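Researcher: I'm preparing a figure for a lab meeting and need a structural model of a single chain. I don't have an experimental structure, so a prediction will have to do for now. The sequence is pasted below. Please return the structure as tokens so I can convert it later.
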Amino acid sequence: MAKGKNTADVVKGLEQAVANSYALTIKTHAYHWNVEGSHFYGLHKALQEQYEDLFPFIDELAERLRALGSYAPGALEAFKSPSQLSEPKPGGSPWQEMIRDLIESRRVVVEHEQGVMEAADAIDDQPTSDLMSERIAKHQEAIWMMESLLK
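Model: Understood. Here is the structure written out token by token.
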């Protein structure tokens, strides 16, 4: 990262990414618990794989914030209020609605993380840019798999 570059936009973006990632993890986990129907077993396992993949990423985001000299958010309100994602649909919702909601939530996360990557690129912050690029690819893969399930 170039000396003297302002990291404020990157830090703000990473804080938002932490909130979004927690919200997506919780939503995915709730759907894992509440999914029903003829696709139950496969969906239950697939959603477990997704939330297990999401959780360690939150740690990476928090550690990147610390590396940039900021503190990582730690209060529940710090995760909830800035999150761009909706609450999970209630139990008893059709599995197709749950999957569509996760697809839309992942798209919101991808859009935000692309903005963080651009902010990081603008100040030559390659580690943050690489972190976002890796996660965007994971989200896009999850979206593709869920869209395939709905066909």
